[in-house]
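User: Hi! I'm working on a homework problem where we have to compare a predicted structure to a textbook description. Could you give me the structure for the chain below?
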Amino acid sequence: MDQAEQLRILKAGQQQSKPLARVIAVTSGKGGVGKSNTSINLAIQFRKMGKRVIILDADFGLANIEIMFGAVPEHNLCDLIYQGKGIRDIITWGPMEVGFISGGSGIVGMSNLSRDYLNYIIQNLAQLDSIADIIIVDTGAGISDAVLEFLIASGEILLVTTPEPTSITDSYSLVKALYRHPRFDADTMKVKLIANRVQKGAEGQILFNKLNAVIERYLKVPMTYLGYVPEDSQLPKSVMQQVPVSLHNPSARSTAAYERIAARLLDKEESGRQPRRGMAAFFSHIITRKR
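Assistant: Happy to help. Predicted structure tokens:
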């Protein structure tokens, strides 16, 4: 079967109405604040609630997800784009059948491909909507163009912040860059804050109130507070064992926190407010901007 025939088949399949996956980006203003731990443990909690989950590791140059999962991927996104692998070939299955896709540097070079081949790749990626209910995009940290494009393409953004002054300052810088992005839409794109490594719940609320007050004053678009994850000695222990704390120690304080945050994200009212884009729209958006 040649590439043109594959395209025709994929486009024909697209004619049928299919449910779209919920795409959630997890990000942070600076590195080292627990972003990847958040992605992995929310994925585990979603699985416990019966959802099919895939993590896209879009933190190029790093391999945090695979290291924390204790699994080495055989293929990555580059193999789909340049080696003709199918979408299922590039998914590595971790604990509790949480899938993850290593991004490699594949997306960076996609703007050089022909439009027909880009359509083929996008339709391949769209198959993720039938494989997963939720796709978590673990972005890089900071305010690079690549990070902002992933956030804009996702629409639903979880911002992980700690009480450290540098984390708060960098989180504000990230939100400011996002809100001032020419394609930011306050009606459909929501930033939801997770306060990480706090001593107690009150500290998490204070952290949110402080950052949100500045954002409302100067940027005029408020954030949403999802909750907090307490400082927990069980978390680094689980990382050393390469097992998510939600599995390594189900009774840990951090595990309970991730469970609460995941439940809030799956709450019918919260989930219903968020339009679902699916992976075809996600990648189409990124590629269009690069072209």
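For your comparison, note the following. DSSP finds 14 helices and eight strands in the chain. Residues 44 and 247 are 8 Å apart (CA to CA). Good luck with the assignment!
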